[in-house]
Amino acid sequence: MAGKLTFCIYFILVAFFCLEHTNANPAIATGWDPLEICIENCAQCKKMFGPWFEGPLCAESCIKFRGKLIPDCEDLASIAPFLNKL
User: Fold this and answer.
1) What is the pLDDT of residues 21-43, one digit of tens each?
2) Full-model pTM
3) DSSP of 41-73, one letter per residue?
4) What is the DSSP letter of 25?
5) Alpha-carbon gap, residue 18 to 38, rounded angstroms
6) Distance, CA of 53 to CA of 48 (rounded, Å)
7) What is the rounded distance in angstroms from the CA atom of residue 34 to the CA atom of residue 53?
8) Are 83 and 55 in contact (CB under 8 A)?
9) Exposed/middle/buried for residue 58 (C-beta within 10 Å: 0-12, 13-18, 19+)
C-alpha cells in the first residue's frame, strides 16, 4: 500500500513539474497574425482547388494588403480573384 501511495505522489509531482515548465504559446494569449493566417489559407485553397487556384497570386495579395483580405476557401467571393478557368 505504501509503495502505491509513494508511486502516486511521485507521478503527480513529476506530471506537475513537466506541465509547469512547458513552453506553450497559445494563440489566445499572444493574438494572431493575419498575414500568417492569410498565407496558410492560400495554401489550403491551393490544396483544395489544385490547378484552378492561383496560390502565388493569393500569397502576393496577402503580402500586399498585409493580411487584411483573408481568403476563405468556402467563400467563393473571397477567392474569386485567384480562380482561373484553365
Assistant:
1) 555 555 555 678 999 999 999 99
2) 0.63
3) HHHHHHHHHGGGB-HHHHHHHHHHTTTSS---T
4) -
5) 34
6) 8
7) 20
8) no
9) buried
